[in-house]
């Protein structure tokens, strides 16, 4: 059930790259992401806002587009070179998935495809670059977001997703399963050497559960909430600050943006690069070993639909979180 | 309704001093307070554990006594000198409250009395001292509690308490009231120059809502929870980490000890010493301006009874928290 | 040599209040204090800038005045009430020191006098107030200075200063002395319940060594330096971040402003209120127990002269720092 | 002069792995690294101590061996698989460098070789693993070291090293050069996606300048120094806490262990994975843009010799640091 790692993948997908979200009111989203959380504005167009974290040299890791309703348009992944991009196209097509070249502003040659769970992917090897703002103290405000780290997707097709991504060279760092059940309920998959670039958790989907960005210290997890409250977004703090117990150790806070898209801010994660690193299994019964309040019901049930992607049928297995019990 | 400050009080009460809690299992309480939260053990007796914070030179700020059930035996207050202690006795007796000298180990001459709300007070001018541990890095662990800061008491007699303490020289730093109502629902009273030494909030009482201790940084609010979880106390994190909006600005976490006594850990508070500092009024409707989850119901309803003190009748005004609405 | 504490002082001086510095270029000082360190501007006049910390309700704790050369014009102290102000006048005059009423904008009735070391004092009971900015997250930037805490003065008259302030009710929290010598080299004197409102250290004087302001966390000690470097003030970081070992435990950084005035930013200090708290003595030989680099020579020798105050003759005892040895 | 990146390297070297230091007194080194800094002991033998960081699953990242004098015996690097290890052997041999298989306890098949600068390398694909301690709050003490990050080597052969490592697939993240000179003075080379796994700086060598370990927050950089001072190692804090300006943004402190080996503790670094990331060039004249004290002379001149490796002749170019000027 748990696939062997693939150390010589068919092409080199390197990391979670960017996400494109449809939002109802760009000015309101700008107030949330830029004025409050502290994202850097790379470019601003009438219908689109390109944002990045303080340490990012890439043109964008978060793209907000004017839309009639809240939606996730694309999840972006990076490959290392243009040759790897050709390899990606071949890999997806060999799996019976449509893949087509497209042009996306500020990005190099770009592939549009979808993974077996139906997540609309946008894959490129390069972007325009801008100077990192990491030495610019005056650019540090709010939560001081440093960079995009990973995505989490809800899907009834956790196992299919695991196998498809593992064959692309993604390593399984940790996974959660019902006690006594082999099939995982949530899988944490990574290419860049920390626990996750993309996570699949069992639930109605495909839907984007959250995109996660790194912040410098515990202090910023609290301070960004203060800034949110001051700017009228106090109710947008959904869960935390608290800490994860799977995967690994990371202090986090989950926010809902003005359209309901969920953003995780968290501090740094552990490194996992070596071939002998084995996936860590967590039984659902172990997850109560943390502290504090459980996630609210919304954290389990609400997520962002992908544009034009229908909900999928899947196994009858219960959704992630359904068996968690209070501490 | 709001009393004028008394700048020349009849005697000099200086600060919240210590609290004596009855606990069912001293070993279990030691595991919680010492091994997990990081209190310093000043002395350990078969039926009593004397604890203090890392920066405290006084012999104890937290005394745990073996008891058949969870109870608060005494709330300790300090006066500056023995002469002030005589002044205290005279003041309480003039108010028709019984006050008697008693001997308490490790303390100077000690007065036992009760305030108008029925809180059993233990007042002294001096204690034995021990070296502050503030330079001893190896003594810093868990939450690194620095010192006792204040108490919060639930009582139906908020207004009586306010007037009694104000006449002793306590300053009202902030208070909460129902919108359009003059009478306060919660009063924050202080002698030591930060917002509170003792707080009275409307509720069934008298009961001790919590004793609060200062920790160094935001980091410790999260880390102590990690340590609590590791030691089996993950479910004892009742509320937070979060931040207050009244009074002032303080990041906190509320814990329940193994007997259900509530402890607040929080970071530093603002200074308020000057004669022109006016009490800040907060309407209940303003308190939703913070962020994140509301306190759980237990935070409003549960508290520790004082040994041998009956619940009081009071005004029919609703308890604090009853009118707070979700964000 | 070490005076007994005076628990019933002739009047109630409460705390270090404010400092008035002469600066050559107000715009440059504004760039340093406001844009970089993060002070709140209460009022701005053509020749004067009134600043305060984020938590301060008082109109000003730092006043910058246009001047032909760098100077300290006044060190401000607070008494509790106007009656205490009369008491202060009587006390200083009884000691043979001139004291006269003056009018200072934004302050209540104000007394100008000087202490025995020659420090020009400005004493008042009240100031205009402004809302504390402690709940205004968007006002937090740079070092996030919270409030003025204390002053340090260089003087050949340490012992005279100690006795004069002690008789006013100041408590000696800690002091430094040469090994085997009874007379102190530096005395830490306090009224507000933490280790110091004013410090006298042996040296050519009277001169203002520094004014100290509290910042929230260790993080801010580093971050403010980043902001200083970005704004062209990287060379103004004189010493630290490091930590004190006397008095007590406080992490600090010393900055020189554009005129060479020294500012200390530090995190919180311990509480010392009780009558039994004894002064802690440190021998010079013990001070090497800290870590990292020693202060640069400038930290020992350079300080701000007081306007129109001549240097004093004093004992031939060596200046503070002269006998400190490398670690 | 600056080589093009090699995106399809001949084998997959993944990261800095471990370092083997010879120390004169294992008990004293244990007091420094374990009791004070907070490393986890994986195994302890009469003549050898195996240490790792809190988040590390690998058996060791720091090995201390009893030795007659301070020396660095090996710098360890990881490749992904055993097949990559064969590739490494072929690559070093093709470059005319001796490479031989050896057996090292707790490691898989291990290759001993040396790079063109003469650094003795120990390369393996796998190690025994132990549970990460990242969820064990009680294991967090002192500086809470998380994991090994990188090495810095002094050598007169910076350019040769750059080209040799670049051909192995190492990316040049940043480099320092004398103003107007093309040839670099210091090169930051990486495989794992942050700015460095190994750094070469011009100087008498080959010598190990330092090994660097990640700590969680700014707080720990200060706190570990407090713990060092308490344990008698206050003089071992050589430089900092301060922050880097090249490469990137990282807060650090440099320590000297009891044998004089230099350890850097620092907070997290930026991510650099993408093919379009260009090396950042810093002119020596720009490095004064930071803040605070310059490194002491020892930081530039002192380093650890490698066991049995002679000093090399190199270009006559001046050593790194020689042209840095005070701020």
Structure commentary:
Four copies of one chain form a homotetramer. The first copy, chain A, is of the alpha+beta class and 327 residues long. Chain A has five helices and 18 strands. The first copy, chain A, has helices at residues 26-37, 82-94, 158-167, 218-230, 297-301; strands at residues 13-23, 40-45, 48-52, 62-66, 71-79, 99-102, 110-114, 120-124, 147-155, 171-177, 184-190, 198-202, 207-214, 237-243, 251-256, 262-266, 280-283, 304-305. In chain A, the strands form two sheets. In chain A, strands 9, 10, 11, 12, 13, 14, 15, 16, 17 and 18 form a ten-stranded mixed beta sheet that branches. The longest helix of chain A has 13 residues, at 82-94. Chain A is globular and about 50 Å long. Chain A starts with 12 loop residues before the first strand and ends in a 22-residue tail after the last strand. The model of chain A has no long low-confidence stretch (mean pLDDT 95). At the B-C interface, loops of B face loops of C.
């Amino acid at each position: 059930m748990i696939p062997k790692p693939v150390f010589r993948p068919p092409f080199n997908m390197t990391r979670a790259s960017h996400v494109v979200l449809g939002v109802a009111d760009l000015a309101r989203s700008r107030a949330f992401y830029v004025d409050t959380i502290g994202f850097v504005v790379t470019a601003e167009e009438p219908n689109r806002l390109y944002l990045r974290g303080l340490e990012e040299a890439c043109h964008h890791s978060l793209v907000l587009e004017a839309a009639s309703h809240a939606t996730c348009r694309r999840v972006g992944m990076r490959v290392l070179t243009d040759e790897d991009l050709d390899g990606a196209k071949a890999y997806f097509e060999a799996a019976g998935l449509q893949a087509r070249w497209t042009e996306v502003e500020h990005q190099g040659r770009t592939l549009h495809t979808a993974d077996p769970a139906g997540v609309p992917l946008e894959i490129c090897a390069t972007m325009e670059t801008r100077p990192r703002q990491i030495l610019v103290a005056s650019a540090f405000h709010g939560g001081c977001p440093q960079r995009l780290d990973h995505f989490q997707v809800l899907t009834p097709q956790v196992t299919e997703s695991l196998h498809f991504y593992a064959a692309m060279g993604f390593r399984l760092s940790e996974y959660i399963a019902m006690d006594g059940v082999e099939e995982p309920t949530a899988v944490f998959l990574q290419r860049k050497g920390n626990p996750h670039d993309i996570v699949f958790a069992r639930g109605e989907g495909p839907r984007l559960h959250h995109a996660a960005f790194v912040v410098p210290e515990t202090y910023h997890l609290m301070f960004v909430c203060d800034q949110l409250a001051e700017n009228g977004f106090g109710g947008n703090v959904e869960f935390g600050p608290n800490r994860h117990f799977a995967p690994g150790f990371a202090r986090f806070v989950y926010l809902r943006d003005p359209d309901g898209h969920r953003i995780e801010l968290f501090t740094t994660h552990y490194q996992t690069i070596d071939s002998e690193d084995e996936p860590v299994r967590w039984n659902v019964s172990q997850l109560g070993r943390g502290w504090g309040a459980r996630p609210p019901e919304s954290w389990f049930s609400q997520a962002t639909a992908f544009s034009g992607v229908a909900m999928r049928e899947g196994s009858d297995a219960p959704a992630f979180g359904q068996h968690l019990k209070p501490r």
